[in-house]
Amino acid sequence: GSDFFYSGADGNQGSPSLQHNMGATVFVQPLDLVKNRMQLSGQGSRAREYKTSLHAVVSILRNEGIRGIYTGLSAGLLRQATYTTTRLGIYTVLFEKMTKADGTPPNFFMKAMIGMTAGATGAFVGTPAEVALIRMTSDGRLPADQRRGYTNVFNALFRITKEEGVTTLWRGCIPTMARAVVVNAAQLASYSQSKQALMETGYFSDNIFLHFCASMISGLVTTAASMPVDIAKTRIQNMRMIDGKPEYKNGLDVLLKVVRNEGFFSLWKGFTPYYARLGPHTVLTFIFLEQMNKFYRIYFLDS
Fold it and tell me: What ranges make up the beta strands (E) of the chain?
């Protein structure tokens, strides 16, 4: 899901609960799977395995069945449990520390910094589940003799530790944390900027329609900004050793190889399923936040 945290004007968190996030994971798992397959599609060449996201869905259903589209669900649930719990905890603690004695919440800049710190820390803690998720969702595209065949997330974590060493669980943690920071910054900045620009056209007033349009733009900008970091993360976490050497040195090496071998726009492979995940979450979060702030102003400030 989205990596951003919000607080109402009274300092209460507007972010969804862990149960909400884990419930949402059941619905977004197929989107995650398609995004990961698209990002790994045509690796090292311009010949793509899947032409479009729809082609990927049809191929997966045809070759792996309805269960195939839910591969890696246990890893998706564990990622939410570790990632969401950590970032909620960190955000709440930092938010309370930055709130002044008279109850004044932190300013816009501080909220952004707290959100980015919490997102990056949560991403670090959630990386082992993320590695398991990437590997499990990508397994079905490989020939039968090359598949890793993890039975569930705990089997994946145990085998990765045993076969490749415990540090492999944190493979790609730098781009995973970078993505969390990029999503936070892009979401926050693009939402306020879009809202301001739309208001200045004179066609919008400060209502739900404005919040919806601004958050749709924000979701689009955030998706575009974070996808190159996301593809670097996906490729690193899925890579194998070739002649005893890792396939990629680091995230920058992934980006350079993708651009050189697959073309510049391949950095945005899987855009549709990624936006289908991030877009609605961004819209609902901002609308929820705006309504909370509105009711707070009406019932507390004006009373």
Answer: 241-242, 245-246
